[in-house]
Amino acid sequence: MYKIDVLIQGYPGKSLCHGGLGWSTIALLRGEGRTILVDVGAFAVRPEFGKQLKAADCAPESVTDVVLTHAHWDHSVNYTLFPNADIWIGRVEMEWASATPVGFNPLPELYLQDLAKHPKLRLLEDNEAFLPGFTAHLCPGHTPGCLVYRMTGNDVPVVFSGDAAKNRAEMLSMTTDMTMDAGASRASLDRIWGLWKQEPGTLLIPGHDLTMRLDAAGKPEYIGQRRAGIKAWFNEDLAVMEEFDISAPRF
Ligand SMILES: [Zn+2]
User: Fold this and answer.
1) Could you tell me the distance, in angstroms and rounded to a whole number, from the CA of residue 219 to the centre of ligand 1?
2) CA of 70 to the centre of ligand 1 (A)
3) How far apart are CA 52 and CA 35, in angstroms?
4) Which domains are present in the chain?
5) 235: CA distance to ligand 1 center in Å?
6) What is the CA(24)–ligand 1 centre distance, in A?
7) How far is the CA of 117 from the centre of ligand 1 (A)?
8) Which residues form the signal peptide (predicted)?
9) SS3 letters for 199-217?
10) Neighbours of 219 (CB within 10 A)
11) Strand, coil or helix: what is 45?
12) Residues 6+ apart with CB under 8 A from 191
């Protein structure tokens, strides 16, 4: 039904003294006459995002739907790059984000003001079915209106957990980092496990980690190879850069 391409792989980490990395997952789904992006990343990802869209032979104008898991800057701001798309997000999330005063938080206030009056904004309720095969599931905690999406109709269903479950460690430990309400996040993790286990083979695509599925023992196994690194100028020569592979532990 849908061909799925994870254009940008989420990364399960944070920087030590420069705030959020914001390396979040962007997934492209094509089929049923629609071209759908689930989350659209941060400003910094734009060059790579553009490259990956081009490699997938997907013109920005052809995107019919941008489906946002929540309002944080690292998942939402690039909705502006898709002029013909409906923008889907939770009603609870938009109401909360719009009512939050400007502050030292991960909300992109000007983009949210724009989105609130966007002519193609589509607000979703808990358990709502929308687009072919999609349902929205309210999973609060990380933010009050985080939505997790389940897509059925392909041979295997897919669960997009956004930041309600950012990575494998959160799914396995049943605890979350960076949550506004730890108790709500715990209940949301239960709900996500329920969606994941509902049908064998279901893929989980989290907000900040590789795609996973459950192995025969019911443990999450990664699909694909992690790629992540940075390079820096520590030398006096501009041509000399130190590269740091951060795709795996150093030991
Ligand atoms: Zn977030």
Assistant:
1) 25
2) 7
3) 15
4) 3-226 (3.60.15.10)
5) 35
6) 9
7) 22
8) none
9) CCCCEEEECCCCCEEECCC
10) 10
11) helix
12) 137, 139, 148
pLDDT by 10-residue block (mean), the chain, 251 residues: 97 93 97 97 98 98 98 98 98 98 97 98 98 98 98 95 97 96 97 96 97 93 95 95 91 65
Instruction: Please give the structure tokens belonging to residue 203.
Output: 């893929």
Do residues 212 and 222 touch, judged by C-beta distance below 8 A? yes
121 CA distance to ligand 1 middle (Å): 20
pLDDT score of 249: 83
Kind of pairing between the strands at 65-67 and 86-90: parallel
- What pLDDT score was predicted for residue 1? 92
Q: How far is the CA of 109 from the centre of ligand 1 (A)?
A: 14
Cα 74 to its chain centre, rounded Å, is: 8
